[in-house]
Queue: 2 jobs
Job 1
Amino acid sequence: MFTYVIRRIAMVPIVLLVVVTIVFFAMRMVPGGPAYALLGSYASAEAVRQLEIELGLDRPVWEQYGSFLNDLLHGDLGTSIFNGRPVGPELARAFPYTGALCLATIVWGLLLGVPLGALTAVRRNSFWDYTGRVVSLLGLTVPPFYLAILLIVAFSLKLKIFPMIGGGELSNPLDFLHHLVLPSLTNGIVMSAFVSRTVRASLLEVLSSDYVRTARSKGLREGHVLVRHAMRNALIPTVAFLGVYMTLLLGGAVVVEVVFSRTGWGRVLVNAMKQRDFPVLQVGLMLFSAIVVAVNLLVDMVYAYIDPRIRYS
Amino acid sequence: MRKYLIYLAVGLLVSGLGLYCFGQELAENQVLRVASPDDDITGLDPFDFLGTSAEPMSRAIYEGLVRFNFGFVAVDQMEPALAESWTVSSDGLLWTFYLREGVQFHHGYGEFTAEDAKFSIDRLVEGNSRHAADYATVEEIVVVDPYTLEFHLSEPNPFFLFTVGNFHGGSVVSKKAVEELGEGFRSMPVGTGPFEFKEWLSKEKVVLEGFDEYWRGEPVLESIEFIFMPDVNTRTLALESGQVDTATDVPDEEAWVQNMRNKGVIVDALGYDIPLLCHFNMTVEPLNDIRVRQALSYAINRDDFVQFHGPSICRPQVSVLPPGMYGSITEGVPLYEYNPEKARELLAEAGYPNGFDLGVALSSVRDLYLDPLEIIQAQWAEIGVSLEINAVAHTEYHALIRQDLSPVVVYPGPRPTPDMIFTQYIHSDAIVGKETAITNFSHYGDVDCDGDGTVDSVDEYVELARSEVNTERQKALYAIAQLQTLLDLPVYPLRVLAAVQARQTWVDLGHVPYEGSYINGYAYTELTQILKH
């Protein structure tokens, strides 16, 4: 187990280097570039030329790459072309908002999805099952930005209990959480649709297995059988699913961030893409991959821990 | 007894009057929240080009030697600001400004003097800022004494005051602050305006605070928060729920305007700011044939554009200079009014009786560019001209159209003066592909438009008008240029949109909003206040 983890961690620098290199060269091959982004409709030929020289983009690509790697190794994460601010602090400031959003989404996703999945499995082919599956289908098909607006209209505009703008102050935890509810609920509802279906499928399988039959024949109450014996095993695939979903969440956070005007990595990276802000994209995507690798490693470790079959193989 | 009654009556009268005057009570919370349409700003240094979100911030932080008059902005109505008065020599080559004494910069950067004003403009030219071109005719700026500044011009410039107003390059910065902060000035701006910069939380908001020592008086507002809200639906909902006080860049649709007005939000749709020109790339066959361009123009129905946005915020644009702009002519111009039969006739004459395939036109993904092109595509399909649209990312669009890669370019791009419009879109120096290229996509000025063997151009009228101080003569020159352009038809003007902005009923701007001009967003002054609500 230990060597396995070490091996996985050792892969990280390689993955990061590959990602950064691909992003670096791919960005420079697309027509346009940051000079046109900054100048917009005022781009005259001379202004573009001059700005590219200022930004160091007229140098040969290999030279730019070398200088970027050199800076990176010295801890210099670069400066945003778009707003002239250092990339590191900007990403650092936005991270708690995105991180909290992802975690809170997972909480909602599990809180809403697991009971729904269990209900539809236990009351299979009943009214509850059909209703539950239709509800989860809605969660899968309604576009998140539309769902976000519906939630805003209901809870912010009409009921006035939650704010619709911003992520709140980091220094004020209550305010921060207050601003977190609607955005995380939006993605949480979508996630719960996936979770409920996964839970339903695996629970159905578990409920018909031998050891559950044994537990029932021992005279244990159904509730006890469900929670103590069935659910724990049924949830294993859900854990594996979490790892994959985390990656989707990090990338998909941008929709919710835009609609709720929250700061976050989604917006930073998407804006950087639109503006061809090379420094932010390069470092941002590199760190993004690092997080994806880390999360997947964590999930794999948890998975190995809770599933003895893997541990002993 | 009667004396007391009289005293009582007078007392009641006075307090009644007092209550009436101060009856418009102020809200306790004087923090103005502005919904800004962008993801973020690029900085607050007037050296750079500031976009839609940053302009109102800049206008609150900086001032110019003169200030744009509120209401319908006109160059001859500019008001004193950092300059108390000014004179111009009879040959138009020497402008002398007498500056205001005792004006303080923000954050303790000392008193404003002529050195700061000179520095503010010199740095644009020396650093080759995007605004440097506005000062091309300024040979030298001389500091006569701390409160007197001279501009020596190489030729008369009737629009000169425009360039020293509270807009773009005219914003006065603190020399000391720029020298001290260097690149950092971009995120720590220092000006003389009613609001001081407090903080910029990237992708979140920019906060300005009322500047107590502002020379016109301490602002009523405590602070202004410009909140970045990139989703237009959120901006709408925020206005409806009262969570923001003002918003710009709202949908330019009549339905939206009426809906918000019904909900009790003030919507200002003033002036006609956003013009639209369809440029025909005359190096692409068959657009080099004037009959084809005329046919395409006759096939366009300007009414469709007006209906698309709504007649209260959109009207046809019949000339290169949009209606309301200085020198614009709207009467007696060839309109090429919608006439599909005439269009087909002209096409047949030119040798295309069944129409033709114009190829692929580039567009940005943004609605402002894509919607009109789709309307034109449908209108041209009716006369047998087929056009495919390739919508690309905005920055790519701007790069590719400057490489001559689109047969037609439908371009908004509002510009504040007739000189800028002609210089950037119509003059031959601006033709894309040249060293001096700006945004002349049609190649007008370098090609033979009407097939008579000679190159057609209005360059000389534009150049003469640029330095003509007599307004009648100048307007006449622009009139000729506009007429000739319409006859040669390198571009076809489509429509102008009003600049739509919205504010809550409890926002008292303290002035009439800017109108008929190119200025983005509301102005917030020391008089702006939030009423009780």
Job 2
Amino acid sequence: MKAIHFKMGLFGLLLGIALSSIGFTDFGEIHSMFKFQEARLFLTYGLGIGVAAVGFLVLRQARQMRPRPLHRGTIAGGLIFGAGWAITGACPAGALAQLGEGRVVAVFTVLGVVAGAWLYPVVHARFFRWPMAVCEA
Amino acid sequence: MEQLFTNWPWWLGGLALGGCAVGFLKVTGMPLGVSRSYGRLADAMVDRESAARESALSDSEALEAALRAATAAEFGEAALSEHEQASQREGASQPQQQSKPTGLVPWTAHVAFVLMVIVGGAVTALLRGGWKPVFDLGPEHTAIFGGGIGLAVTLFVAGTLVGFGTRMGAGCTSGHGLSGCSRGQLGSMVGTASFFAAGVAVSFLLGALV
């Protein structure tokens, strides 16, 4: 165990608590966001991006992160992820927090996300001719 | 206590999500991005498999015999004995140690991160008054997808879409949204618009089907 394990573990804990307390793990809340019945999660997410923008500027750390240009998988990948999100009510982190809350069936979502993350490079190497983009986040 | 950790108002939730993104970067030096952790986990599983294959091959005497036979068939026994005499004169060269890729945190740190997101969900359930296992994703989900084996298959397949799509698009709600849109990155803004568009379309489709 190194310091990075504790640092990432700490923020994993905070993110899990935040996602569950917000309701980003609740299919009903996600579904009503996507159907424009509730603005709360849209506002939450928008403010989150705004707070991050201000924070990165204040810390002057925006430049140390790599750029995230448009690439050939951006739109197709986004559409595929969005479809899975609407069905599971879980983004990649949300699936983990769902499982932690005791929603046992979310284990199938988590296993599916791992399987998909394993599968993509295989499919990419076989069918796609462009360089694979990496999530440097 | 239960109300304190349920459906936070948007200003509190936004501060928490933004705070996580900024704090994660400040403390770890990396931008927050959860789909990357899944990618590292999946890659680590594949690397372990290939490492196991390699060690099995290098330990095997059968491999050496097979290589000798193949070499003799291709170039003749004379070439093989000539090569062996030459390599005995020079001394066998040691295989070079492969260098590890640098600049990546160990994949086990991503394991710690992923496990602690799970713990975070559990802590929230405890703070709400008690953790208890449930076998659905709530009444709205059950009304659309039902339960049992069908639910498990549905979640696994749709989870695969999440993993595949976030890796193809190189980002998810945290990496593209919180860490990318906040810096005005074009790829992240288009990616975020794409996954929200698909989420809206599929949700309305599900509503129409049920």
